[in-house]
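Ticket 4471: requesting a sanity check on a complex prediction with flavin mononucleotide. Repro inputs:
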Amino acid sequence: MSLITDTHNRRADTDAPLIPILAERWSPRGYDATAVVDEAALTTVLEAARWSPSASNVQPARFIVARRGSKSFATIHGGLMGFNQAWADSASVLIANVAELPVDAETKLVTESPWTRYDVGQAVAHLSIQAQHEGLHTHQLGGFDGVALSEAFGLAANQVIVTITTLGVLGDASTLSPALLEREIAPRTRKPLTELLLVND
Ligand SMILES: Cc1cc2nc3c(=O)[nH]c(=O)nc-3n(C[C@H](O)[C@H](O)[C@H](O)COP(=O)(O)O)c2cc1C
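Returned C-alpha cells:
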C-alpha cells in the first residue's frame, strides 16, 4: 500500500463549521527548503501580530525575525532541540517570540504578569492565521534552548523567548525521513469539545 504524502489538504474535520483559514491551518515539518517568503507578505504577517489585543494594550510581544541564509537564522536553528533541528531549517523564516516582562519602577526587578506570555501567544496566533491567509504555513516550537538563544541575541533580563515560530511554504512531504513523514501524515485529532467545556450552562 503506498502512502498518501500530499499534505496540501489537511483540513480539520470539525464538528461545527469554522472559517476556512482556521480549519486549514496545520503545523507542517515538510517545508520547501528553497522557497523565499515575499517581503510584503512577511510584513503583513508581522503586522497581524502587532494588531493583536493585549492586556491594557501593553503590547509585550517582541520578535526576532530571521530569514533563511542569515546569521540569525543559523543562530536560532542552532538553539533548537535535536528533533526540531532535523527539519526546521527548511522553513523560510524562523521567528523567536519574545515576551517583554514588566520591570518594577522602584526596585528595577523583573516581575511576572499573568498576561504577558498570554499576550505573546495571542500575537503568535494572529500571526499564524494571517500567514495561512497569505498561503504560508507556520509551526510553533517549544523545544529550544532559551538560555543559549537569549545570550546569543543579547536579550535584556526582562526579555524571555517564549516560543519559536517556523514560517514557510509547504514542501514535498515525501522528502522527509520516515519518522517525520509518519507524523506529517498522521490523522489530525482533538479532544471532544465536551471535554473542554468545564461549564456549559
Ligand atoms: C507552544 C507550542 C509548542 C510546540 N512545540 C513543538 C515542538 O517543539 N516541536 C514540534 O514538532 N511541534 C511543536 N508544537 C506543535 C504542536 O505539536 C501542534 O501544534 C499540535 O500537535 C497540533 O497540530 P496542528 O498545529 O497541526 O493542528 C508546538 C506547538 C505549540 C503551540
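Notes from triage: DSSP finds eight helices and four strands in the chain. Leaving this open until the requester confirms.
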